[in-house]
Amino acid sequence: MDQRLVAADNLLKAGRVAEAADLIMQVLTDAPDNPANVYRILVHQLYQQKRYDEGAIWAQAATERFPKDFALWNMRGVILRRLSRYPEALKALDQAQKLDPKSPTPLVNRGNIYNDMGAGPAAEAIFVKLARQEPRNAEHHRSLGRALLAQKKYEAAISRSRQAVTLKKDFVDAWLDWSAAEAQRENVTGALEVIERAIASAPGNGRLLEAKATILRRMGQMTAAEEFLMSLLPLHGNEAWLHYALGGSIADRDHQRANAFYRRAVELDPAKLDYRLALVESLERSRYGDEGANIEAAYQLYKESVKPGDLPLEPRNAKVANELLIRVCAFDELERLGSFRDLGRGWAEDGRHAALLKQLARVRTTEDRYELVEQHRIWGDRTIAAAARNPIRPPKKTRSSDKIRVGFMSSDLRRHPVGYFAYPLFENIDRDRFDVFVYSFYQGGEDVVQAYIASKVTGFRWNPDISVHDAAQMIADDDLDMLVELGGSTHMNKLEVMAYKPARLHASWLGYPHSAGLRTIDYLLVDPYLMPQSRDLILERPLELPHTWYPLDPHAFRDDPPVDPAPAFQRKGFVTFGTANNPQKYTLEVLDAWARVVAAVPQSRFLFVRPESGTAQFRRNIEAAFAKRGVAADRLDFHPVRGQHLPVYNEMDISLDPFPQTGGTTTCESLWMGVPVVTLVGPSVFERLSYSALMNAGLEALTADTVDKYVQIAIDLAGDTARLAELKQGLRERMKASPMGDTRQFAIDFYETVAGAVTADLSS
Prior knowledge:
4 domains, alpha/beta, single chain, 7-stranded parallel β-sheet, 55% helix, 764 residues, 13 strands, Rossmann fold, 34 helices, Serine Threonine Protein Phosphatase 5, Tetratricopeptide repeat
């Protein structure tokens, strides 16, 4: 016997398994004619160490050398399963079954593969047979439950999971499956009860404890989740999952604390990609300290953590990567994440509506626009189906008065752009005709805007710790004629509430410039300019406001900060183009158009007024994009600022709008500060937001329908210094005199439009 095999055996006995496997590989490389048992030991050890790629190579070599060895074929199938190479795995297991038809092992492994593939009927057929043969085998019942759950046969799946834990009280996987089945049929309270029972049967199990925290978070009980997890620190403080779960429980409220927990999770388990990307996401969203440095740290950690072999990422992690890479304009890396279709549908099917917002700017073709609608529809149908599994009590349909009852659902009715744009609706309520309710799930403290709105409405329902189902029931109990959601899928909003149909009619306005995706939303509020060019570019019926989508509330659009009476070009001696738009709206085509403009206007510069400007990678990528058009880096200015950006518009002469997703708030702010905006108008709602503001302000000449026209308008405007000076002095007053500035009339029009829809519905 080769003495190296003796040494490998000793290493195995000493627990030095990785060294043992490496030594056996050396032996077999030098002397491949060793007996089958040596190959079995090696393949088994590689599997145990999760070295699946190497295991697959050696399993193939072993079965080629020993084609009648049952164990090697079976192990080959198991390893290929771990690599998600399912067709090859099934072929290997077929061969194993032929070699030993009486063995149940290949059949079990085949059933597990079908479960992994989501092939519920095929897995069910196998595990029904196995459960009959071995009715006391808890694993078979658990696997059968998985197959049934994949087919949404919830009661049957729960019955099998229950049987599995009856046979094996501490069967953690079966308890988790049972809880998951309850959650998937929208019985979240039942899911929590199951986990509580599981913890009693298997005390201290980290997976069960983590599952309890996850369910509490899903129920909206963020404080309870944090308190529960903190109570586990004395006994589980050295377990990575606990720090990861704690980070997830508090990230929305305190990124600084969350980052500390995520860092500890990475320290304890540095190989876990989920932990690393959770820290990446939290750093990217951190606004404490130096925001640009936080984003840069997130990018560097991402580069260190995600290798080409990790792609494509599963939907949750792909969302994290996508949002980060967008913020630093890493467009080449973005392309490698996946196609527009595959990423969008993956997010939609995984229930990640917030990720679809980032798809708007990626639209390039007519086909993309319709694909985007379909992605939202996929998410919406999935969400409606989930709501139907645990319906609410419908609205009472009883009337205590003849008033129209209107509800607004948003967690942003506070010091936030949505709050400021909506403010006139609460200042100008006709109390003889309308009862108005507000629903907020905001997790921070009350500010003066929220307090004012609460003082003006019939009911302000503020509940940060509430589940989607219970929020829908709360709204249904108010017996609304129309519920208007203002938030889309932005932070702390609960768009899924609309799937429960808690009001007679539903509408979307302001917060999301596209169809949300829910067939239960009846209307999308638009104005004459936002109306899409084709009706089938939205899912809802358009409900048209007569003049404008935006009211410029004077509490937000104030005379302070003042417009500098001297245009920037007069003070500087050159024209400054710029943007304050979020990089989620940038594309290579946008940057190329901006660079064309700067290149064509001698001595001109471009100013980025964004927090990302403090991020080294953002600046490098922007500079590289402009360099392709011959624009040197010294003609680019970066102003890293958040929230205090309005005075910086005094350093800008012309704002260039991104496309296809155009500005909204930024366009209004730019015009208010005397800086004209050049926009490219497209067919969809999200391509027409700036168009609406410009048309209402009488600035149609600044709108283009092709990129070439967009570029030329910007170049021509830069050359018309008299026009620039005139706009600088007159834009603010022009905005005040426009329909956007007449906030009282806007509110009257809004409520009349809602009343018309309600009346039409009642009479139909």
